[in-house]
Amino acid sequence: MLPIFCLFSLAVICTLQFPPLNQPVLAAYVVVFLLAALLAWRHAPLRLPLLAALAGVLYCHTLAMQRIGAVLPIEREQQDLALVVDIIGLPVDRGRYWRSEARVVGDDGGQRLQLSWYGEAVPGPCQRWQITARLKRPHGLANPGAFDYAGYLLERGITARGYVREAVLLSQHNNCLADLRQRWH
Q1: What's residue 174's pLDDT?
Q2: Lowest-confidence segment of 3-12, 88-97, 139-148 by average pLDDT
Q3: What are the phi and psi torsion angles at 4 (to 5°)?
Q4: Is 80 in a helix, a strand, or coil?
Q5: Nearest to residue 83, comparing CAs of 176, 162, 178?
Q6: What are the Cα distances from residue 166, in Å, to 82, 116, 119, 124, 132?
Q7: Which residues contact 126 (CB under 8 A, 6 or more apart)?
Q8: 85, 174 Cβ separation under 8 angstroms
Q9: Calpha distance 123→99 (Å, rounded)
Q10: What is the pTM of this model?
């Protein structure tokens, strides 16, 4: 059982070295693995390792597609969206604006956003705000060797970036970890 787990893990690690696969490339991988499994079907010792490797590739690809699928839909980009958000983490003063991470509450619950706050409203940790925001999907440079900012945001679970146009403070939670961190600094 341990060698099977090791092959599954090795397939996951190898798959993580490449960008997420689009559907045609994944289909080609599946066909190649299945053909190899069929050719090795007569050799029982090879059957299970090949299926374990295929399961590792499919597992990794499924998780990647779920993460990419959670990104803001294109039709909601550059529109004013009314959202209720909880500020998570500590806001950062960038001079002209504040930057914070927020989690959407409600129908779109669970989405993490990176928000820029201009004007008078200053977000604090553990606050709940009703905001009107204009969001866009994460994107970065496509140059080889350049820092992949979109990938960085996806790794952190941030599904959209944007700025706050209007904000109304709804409530303050005094017993969260980020609030305690801010009090110590």
Answers
A1: 60
A2: 139-148
A3: -65, -45
A4: strand
A5: 162
A6: 9, 11, 9, 16, 5
A7: 86, 87, 172, 173, 174, 175, 176, 178, 179
A8: no
A9: 9
A10: 0.64
